[in-house]
Amino acid sequence: MFKFLKKSVLEADNHLYTPIAGQVRSITESSDAMFSQKMMGDGFVVFPTSEEIVSPVAAEITMIADTKHAIGLKMANDVEILIHLGIDTVNLQGKPFNLVVKVGDILKPGDKIGSMDLKQIDEAGLASEVMVVLTNSDDKISKLQLSDEKFAAGEKVGEMFL
């Protein structure tokens, strides 16, 4: 009767999905050393072919950067995820990003987060690659298994083992 009063329940799921259509690669192939050297954690990078951004996991949004270039998520298994949109795009002050979510939202894999204007990022001379980083992977993940190929947004790309 009062479904609008019910808070969404966070689903347990150890699968990873691509947040944007494109070529998926190991995080070590990112053009930014902060990511490629796994200083922030293990994960993967997507070289995008479209602009729609979706959730790569079932999680709660815990942080959105003021410049909209970074989104923090926390899964039911306590794995923390950072979606980082582009390299040095913080300098664009949020202009190429349109987000439709807020902190506290509960997402399922494939739920829309927003979009990024690839042309605007390219015209600024910046890389549009999207990183999905498991920021506490050293503490939580024993193995990360990924597929390196092209995917549509929201397709399963791998699995993490706790």
What would your notes on this structure say?
By secondary structure, the chain is mainly beta. The chain has a single domain (12-161), classed as Glucose Permease (Domain IIA), CATH 2.70.70. Helix content is 9%, strand content 38%. It contains three helices and 14 strands. The strands form three sheets. Strands 9-5-6-7-11-3-2-13 form an eight-stranded antiparallel β-sheet, with no helix packed on it. A three-stranded antiparallel β-sheet has the order 1-14-12, with no helix packed on it. It has a three-stranded antiparallel β-sheet with strand order 4-10-8, with no helix packed on it. InterPro entries: Dup_hybrid_motif (IPR011055), PTS_EIIA_1_perm (IPR001127), PTS_EIIA_component (IPR050890). Its main location: membrane. Keywords: Kinase, Phosphotransferase system, Sugar transport, Transferase, Transport.
What is the fold's blueprint, element by element?
Blueprint lengths: L14 E3 L4 E5 L6 H4 L5 E7 L3 E3 L4 E6 L5 E5 L5 E6 L11 E3 L6 E2 L4 E5 L1 H6 L6 E5 L2 H4 L2 E4 L3 E2 L4 E6 L1
Antiparallel strand pairs: 1-14, 2-3, 2-13, 3-11, 4-10, 5-6, 5-9, 6-7, 7-11, 8-10, 12-14
